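Lab manual, section 2.4: Encoding a predicted structure.

Procedure: take the sequence of the chain (89 residues), apply the prediction step described in section 2.3, and record the output as structure tokens. A sample record is shown.
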Amino acid sequence: MRLFIAFPTPSEPLYAIQQHFLFPGISLTKTFHSTLKFLGEVDESHIKTIISLLHSVSFQPFTLAYHELGVFPSKDYAKVLWTGLAPPE
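Recorded output:
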């Protein structure tokens, strides 16, 4: 199973940007997330341990600003729109 660690991202600004990438055959999403770590292929037997470890993580709320914009796998065949995040100025 391909897994990643992420948190939900406010959708309003990204949905507006996404409208500029309307191509035939492209389906747009209305929910967004920010990936913290891509774990890759993980055996299902490890999922409970990963969830338990993530529940033990503590953090303080933080603010981020959108920084950079890109697509992959390529500009000619954009399947994913991404934006980087950075501390606000």
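Check your result against the sample. The longest strand covers residues 32-41.
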